[in-house]
């Protein structure tokens, strides 16, 4: 039986490049790996995790979905399980923003024009991941706000272009989420975090002034 994906993983699956190999890094229970493998849209599907326990669960998920012969499971840290050019898309779901960019930094081959599409669902610090991606030469293919299990996520897809961008604070806060129907809900959720964020920012700094402006303007982010 094919597993059911929550809204965030379903959104991630839609962003995978069809017709090219794909890797689900940190596959955990293997639900996304199984759905990708069962779809028949990819010549190779790789599920990888740092720990043997999750890989064992992923193997069971693949067996229950009857697609164990269409996916390969690998044990290893981050992108060390892949070789340059092996896949066209890489999914990094359920890890923090910092863990996401640390994983990418350890694999210099992703910083290549024409390299893999990176699909990310950062568990925290969405704004910081957006800033990091722009600062390191990535361009967004999608930045979709998704609500799952009572909280908001940003499902991001980016590709390396080598063109660096210095984003504004509002750009980092919302990215391209405003182009989606769910954008207003995501913006309200991000805005609700601003007062707490402001407490840690010294008065008189450009960031403090920017946050104060956004708070004063209300929903007009």
What does this structure look like?
- The chain is α/β, with parallel strands linked by helices.
- Helices cover 38% and strands 20% of the residues.
- The chain contains nine helices and seven strands, in the order αβαβαββαβαββαααα.
- Strands 3-2-1-4-5-7-6 form a seven-stranded mixed beta sheet, sandwiched between helices.
- The chain is globular.
Average pLDDT, all residues: 94
Spell the H/E element sequence. Answer: HEHEHEEHEHEEHHHH
User: How many DSSP-defined strands?
Assistant: 7
Distance between the termini: 44 Å
Give helix % range. Answer: 25-40%
User: What's the total helix number?
Assistant: 9
- Going across the major beta sheet, what is the strand order? 3-2-1-4-5-7-6
Task: Report the uncertain regions.
Answer: none
Please give the largest β-sheet.
7 strands, mixed
Overall shape: globular
